Q: What sequence folds into this?
C-alpha cells in the first residue's frame, strides 16, 4: 500500500555521490549561518534563510527525479552568483577569507551543471556536449639565498564552463563562461613614497619590512583582480560555404 514510486526513485552511483557531497555542503552553509549570525545582520538572515529553504527544496526535487529540477537549481544559483558579484562576498565572508566568494561561485555553477546533467542528460540520454575546468593556486613568499621576500605570495582561482548544443544539422550554439580571480602581494620594500625613500632603498643591502619566516599571508600593498567573461555564439550553415554567425559577449572586471 505504501510502495509509492515517488519514494523509491532510481539513483545512479554518481547521483548518490553527488547527494552526499551536497549534504556536506549544506552542513557547511548552515554552520556558516549559525556561526556568523550576528555579522550577517537581521535583514540578511531572512534572505539567507530563504536560500536554505530553496536549496533544500531543489535538492528534494532532484531526488524525486523531477525533470524540471534544473530550472529551480539554475534560478537559485544565478541569484546567488548575482548576490556575490554585487555585494562583493558571501554574506560577509571576506572577514574570514576573500577566497570564499569565488569558491561559492564555482560551487553554484558546478551544482547547476550537475543538476542539469542528472535531471535531463542522465535521465534522457545525451543532450549536449560540455566541459568544465578549474584551477586553484596558492603561492607563498618568494625568497633569495639569504632572506624571504615578505608579502610576495599569490592566490588564484579559475573556472571555465563550455556547453555546445546542436539543435539541427545546420544550427549549432556554443556557450562559454570563465571566472578569473587572483590576489597578488606586492613586496613591501618596493613600495616607496618619495625620492628619499628610493635612495634609502637602493642603499640598503636588504629590502624594508622583511621577515625571517615563510608565510602564505597577503597584506597591503596588494593587487586583487576579478574577471568574468560570458560568451554565446550561434552559427547557421546556409550551405558548404555560407555561415551566418551571431555572437554575444559580456565582460565584467574589477
A:
Amino acid at each position: 500500500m505504501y510502495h509509492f514510486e515517488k519514494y523509491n526513485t532510481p539513483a545512479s552511483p554518481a547521483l548518490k555521490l553527488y547527494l552526499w557531497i551536497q549534504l556536506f555542503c549544506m552542513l557547511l552553509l548552515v554552520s556558516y549561518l549559525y556561526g556568523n549570525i550576528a555579522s550577517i545582520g537581521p535583514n540578511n538572515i531572512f534572505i539567507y534563510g530563504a536560500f536554505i529553504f530553496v536549496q533544500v527544496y531543489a535538492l528534494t526535487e532532484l531526488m524525486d527525479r523531477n525533470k524540471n529540477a534544473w530550472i529551480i537549481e539554475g534560478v537559485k544559483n544565478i541569484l546567488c552568483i548575482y548576490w556575490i558579484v554585487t555585494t562583493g562576498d558571501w554574506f560577509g565572508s571576506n572577514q574570514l577569507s576573500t577566497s570564499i566568494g569565488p569558491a561559492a561561485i564555482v560551487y553554484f555553477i558546478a551544482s547547476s551543471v550537475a543538476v542539469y546533467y542528472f535531471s535531463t542528460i542522465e535521465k534522457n540520454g545525451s543532450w549536449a556536449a560540455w566541459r568544465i575546468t578549474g584551477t586553484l593556486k596558492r603561492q607563498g613568499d618568494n625568497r633569495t639565498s639569504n632572506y624571504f621576500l615578505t608579502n610576495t605570495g599569490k592566490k588564484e582561482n579559475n573556472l571555465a564552463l563550455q556547453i555546445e548544443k546542436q539543435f539541427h544539422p545546420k544550427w549549432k550554439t556554443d556557450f562559454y563562461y570563465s571566472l578569473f580571480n587572483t590576489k597578488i602581494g606586492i613586496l613591501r620594500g618596493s613600495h616607496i613614497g618619495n625620492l628619499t625613500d628610493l635612495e634609502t632603498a637602493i642603499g640598503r643591502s636588504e629590502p624594508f619590512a622583511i621577515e625571517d619566516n615563510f608565510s602564505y599571508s597577503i597584506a597591503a600593498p596588494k593587487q586583487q583582480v576579478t574577471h568574468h567573461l560570458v560568451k554565446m555564439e550561434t552559427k547557421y550553415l546556409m550551405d558548404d560555404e555560407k555561415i551566418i554567425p551571431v555572437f554575444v559577449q559580456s565582460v565584467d572586471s574589477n
